[in-house]
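Components:
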Amino acid sequence: MARRRQAVTIKHVAADAGVSLQTVSRVINKEPSVRPEMKQRVQRSIDKLGYVPSIAAQRMSGSRSYLILAVNDRERTIADWTARQGADWVDQMLLGGMLKCAEHGYRMLFELVDTHDDHVERELATAIAALQPDGLILTPPHSDNPRIVEFMAKQNIPFVRIGSHDTDCGIAISMDDEGSARLAARYLVDRGHSQIGFIAGSPEYQLSEWRVAGWRAVMAEAGFATEGLLAQGDFSYQSGLAAARQLLDRAERPTAIIASNDQMSLATLEVARERGLDIPGDLSIISFDNTPLVHFTQPPLTAIDQPIAETASRAVDLIIAAQKSAELPATPVVVSGSLVERGSVADLA
Amino acid sequence: MARRRQAVTIKHVAADAGVSLQTVSRVINKEPSVRPEMKQRVQRSIDKLGYVPSIAAQRMSGSRSYLILAVNDRERTIADWTARQGADWVDQMLLGGMLKCAEHGYRMLFELVDTHDDHVERELATAIAALQPDGLILTPPHSDNPRIVEFMAKQNIPFVRIGSHDTDCGIAISMDDEGSARLAARYLVDRGHSQIGFIAGSPEYQLSEWRVAGWRAVMAEAGFATEGLLAQGDFSYQSGLAAARQLLDRAERPTAIIASNDQMSLATLEVARERGLDIPGDLSIISFDNTPLVHFTQPPLTAIDQPIAETASRAVDLIIAAQKSAELPATPVVVSGSLVERGSVADLA
DNA sequence: ATGAAAGCGCTAACAT
DNA sequence: ATGTTAGCGCTTTCAT
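Structure:
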């Protein structure tokens, strides 16, 4: 394959417009110190020749790369993709992130990094050195992985930690997991439920605790006990099966279960079917995540929607803002989830 | 934000190893003309300093960028992401593409381009000029969009056209749509069906015709008429509803329907429910695509699996190969789909 | 087999 | 407000 050089460079534009390279550069970068008439002339040449700046060259000369790197956990992502169960976290992240990037003339790149790898730092360093992104977006469980966070703190690159409350370094942004869990619990309490079970997610994710905390808080406020109503899961279908059985084996069977994600809700549905329990007649279910499968279950699941696209979009905004001012938001940014009503909750009242 | 320069450059490595820049470059690029002992010494310095070459600099100096750009249709992709119905084409493409790229030290970038935009060429030119990828992957309907293909033909960048049979330029790779449709039709014929309806996909996609052709061929071979058994859809749920009604309104009702994608199968399922038809007792259904939702329907859908991940993986291989030799595969590369048996087909035999 | 020099496209720093 | 110069990190010549 022949070597490819840039077809149209800043030189061509400069020659065509009869100005210096610098003036063209100033126009491209929207610097103020160019007379409107000059600017127009240059812009005409740019349009005429179809010139587009080379990111590589821009990056080389020390300016921005206009690249934002979103990093997800390799193991989990590949497992989701391979299972083809409709988990669409990545899609939603790209939806929010790419569109917002495009608005600002940035591009979003997507990388997989193993959170359990012995060389996480090395993996990240490689991606950063190779791509030279202007900012980085960390998703759970990376966002609170100490090795990753400490490494990033040294990099002098703005980075957002989605799903973290830690403000030591980086920019924390979370989806109000506690608030969402409260929302779900409150919704059930309002409908006359008092025996509300909760299936927790993997302890590797901090958000798992926050969700438990939200449920606990509402139960306490309402004066209901939580003893024996908390079951530990790890977000997998299997763990959901075990957790649901544990809860439904209680002498005093819960009338409702909140599960920390859709796979565990699916498992709860299956256990209910095993035992001949009608949903929502005998057992109400509220799910977390609102991934595509909630439409297809029998009945469709009432669920907490995680605003992933919106969060990714905000993350991009925060990075671009951080590039300019060194000022970071003092408190964690919060994007609230919402409850989507479907058919899996009974009104006991 | 302070300006960031590369932390460790080839200079540091050269100094540390006590050799010239050039020697380091040769080691990085695995050129043969370096003595093993030199090579070792340099490699040790690289590892010690944690050096990673800057893609920007490599690209600037005229070598490869190690970037492969996958381009999808913006409108359709965003519609799928927003609908959250579990369409996972993008995920499967990333799964196959990213992993294969990683194997070869490449990275996959992902871009959205509007196939109906008046300035498609401009959109593509921008992405190419900015990113300077070593190769490009076109997906349907871009793969057969004449403006896009003609533009790419001029670019001197190897590009793969997924879902195209056209060998004029670029590298065609397809998923054997005709063969897959034959597979589905044959499967039904073998189980005693003779009135087999077919719901076609959008004519904007060439693969729609090939699927129809496969069905027709099997029907002809079996000596069955196809008159009135073909309904036109456009891949949307709505169009599926209309198409299914048209087929099921026939005096001689089909005993089976093949739908060109999952959304239209879902619609067929719904129409069957409306009319009180049991699936598969009264009507068998075979779907195309095998996206996540096939697991969740009642009954789960027997479907043709489109090997998207495998195809993307092959596409990457083809691009990397094309970079070296100018030799392109003479005939279109074909990756075959398979039929996944679930519960939506009745055996009449 | 190794090294030195030139240049890729662009911008920061310094003129004017 | 505009132009000139130097240099980013790397690879391609072209020497040796």
